[in-house]
Write a structure and sequence with these properties.
single chain; 214 residues; alpha/beta; TIM Barrel; eight-stranded parallel beta sheet
C-alpha cells in the first residue's frame, strides 16, 4: 500500500510513496505531483502579481494537486497586511480552480480561522507542519481544517498527546524539508495510536482522496 507524503521539498523516487512536492513560481520541473504557491516569507510587493499569474497557470497543470504553501507568518516575512492580501488572492485561485490550500501558519491561527469563517470556502484548507496542543487542534478541526504532521512527531511529546486524541480522519502526513523517511513518521504515529501501519495507511489514503480529488 502507498505511503502518502502530502508536503515535501525534496524529490524522492520510490514507487511506494506518493508525494506532493512543494513548488514556487520560479520552479522549472513539474513532471511529478506538486503544489505551487507564494510563501509568505518570499512575498515581493513588486513581483507578486506576476507570480500569481504563474501560479494560476500551473494550477491548471495535470500534476497540480494543491495551491501552497501559502499563508501568514507573524515572525518572518513582509508586513502582515501584505501577507493577507497575497493569501486572499490565493484563496480566490483555490476556489476558482477547485484546489485545496496548503497553509503555512506561524502565530496567526486566529487570523486564519477568522478568514475562513468570513469567506466560507468550498475547498479544503490544510495546515501543514502542525505542532501545537490538542486545544488548538480541536478548534481547527471544528472549523473544518485538515492537519498535517511531520518529523516533529518523532521527538515532541506534545504532538504525541495531540495525535492520541484526534480522530484518524482529521490529519495527513508529510516530511516538509526534513531528511526523515515518511515511512518512519507513519510507524511512529501507528505506535502512538496503537494500530498497525497498514491500518494507518488505509485511513490516510481515504483522507488524501477526500482532500486531493483529481
Amino acid at each position: 500500500m502507498v505511503f502518502y507524503d502530502v508536503h515535501t521539498h525534496k524529490s524522492l523516487s520510490d514507487e511506494k510513496v506518493l508525494q506532493i512536492e512543494n513548488k514556487f513560481p520560479n520552479s522549472v520541473n513539474f513532471s511529478s505531483p506538486f503544489s505551487i504557491g507564494i510563501h509568505p516569507w518570499f512575498i515581493n510587493k513588486n513581483t507578486y502579481n506576476k507570480e500569481l499569474l504563474i501560479v494560476e497557470d500551473k494550477l491548471q497543470h495535470a500534476n497540480c494537486y494543491a495551491i501552497g504553501e501559502c499563508g501568514l507568518d507573524k515572525l518572518k516575512g513582509v508586513a502582515l497586511e501584505l501577507q493577507k492580501e497575497v493569501f486572499l488572492k490565493q484563496v480566490e485561485l483555490s476556489e476558482k480552480y477547485k484546489k485545496p490550500l496548503i497553509i503555512h501558519c506561524v502565530k496567526a491561527f486566529q487570523e486564519i480561522i477568522a478568514i475562513k469563517k468570513e469567506l466560507q470556502p468550498k475547498q479544503f484548507w490544510m495546515l501543514h507542519g502542525f505542532n501545537k496542543n490538542i486545544h488548538l487542534a480541536k478548534s481547527l478541526i471544528d472549523h473544518n481544517f485538515m492537519l498535517s504532521f511531520g518529523e516533529l512527531v518523532l521527538k515532541n511529546k506534545k504532538i504525541e498527546e495531540t495525535l492520541r486524541q484526534i480522530n484518524l480522519s482529521s490529519f495527513l502526513i508529510e516530511t516538509d524539508d526534513s531528511d526523515v523517511n515518511v515511512k518512519d513518521i507513519y510507524q511512529k504515529i501507528a505506535d502512538i495510536r496503537n494500530v498497525k501501519v497498514v491500518i494507518l495507511q488505509n485511513q490516510i489514503k481515504q483522507n488524501f482522496k477526500r482532500i486531493f480529488t483529481k
